[in-house]
Write a structure and sequence with these properties.
211 residues, Helix Hairpins, 2 domains, three-stranded antiparallel sheet, binds fe (ii) ion
Length: 211
């Protein structure tokens, strides 16, 4: 399969002032595109039965990849999955928090939405170097916060990601320099909670009513 960077649902200046145009342009047009190019180049070198597997399945069991290409596909394949979600869950500012079942579930799991944000931010600040922090759902439908280094996907830990923050400096340095905490505070303003809720409903449905 030949992977592509997904279309953006908004213009690169649409998340101003929280994430500036320059940051989004470089992130989308260069960093994500570079991951996709390198992923496709590496998959070309792999046997056909691997190339035809869904990328999520490959990343969930990276041991299927021949050793010489394994770390590259882990990096660039994980990077493609992580960033494909990233562009989906961002939107111009319009909502400040989730609603309905997702909000109830977050409140139950973390003792309130503000508490959830505080725990999420602490874990994101504790991620040393590059990586991501996630809100994900496990195979029993329980939600939790987790963090992964580099471009590792939460799928590798058995979590389906609902929401994630990119903690690579390329995601914020042009805007916030070393101030990761300011970036996290701003990022809450540009989350598309309706999309996060859709993912929550979809994953829960597959757990409650497996095919
Ligand atoms: Fe990134």
């Amino acid at each position: 399969m030949n992977y592509k960077v997904p279309n953006l649902r908004f213009t690169c200046n649409a998340l101003e002032p929280f994430l500036n145009e320059h940051t989004l342009q470089y992130h989308y047009q260069h960093h994500h595109q570079d991951y996709v190019t390198r992923l496709n180049d590496l998959l070309e070198l792999c046997p056909t039965q691997i190339r035809n597997k869904p990328l999520e399945d490959i990343i969930a069991d990276i041991s299927v990849i021949p050793g010489e290409y394994r770390q590259g596909i882990r990096n660039y394949g994980g990077g493609h999955l992580n960033h494909s979600l990233w562009w989906q869950i961002l939107s111009p500012p319009h909502t400040t928090h989730p609603q309905g079942e997702l909000l109830k579930t977050i409140n139950f799991a973390f003792g309130g939405f503000d508490n959830f944000k505080a725990i999420f931010k602490r874990i994101a600040l504790e991620r040393f170097g590059s990586g991501w922090t996630w809100l994900g759902m496990d195979h029993l439908g329980k939600i939790d916060i987790t963090s992964t280094p580099n471009e590792d996907s939460p799928i590798m830990l058995g979590f389906r990601p609902l929401l994630g923050i990119d903690l690579w400096e390329h995601a914020y340095y042009l805007n916030y320099q070393h101030r990761r905490g300011d970036y996290i505070n701003a990022w809450w303003h540009v989350i598309d909670w309706s999309r996060v809720s859709q993912l929550f409903d979809m994953y829960r449905e597959t757990i409650l009513h497996p095919k």
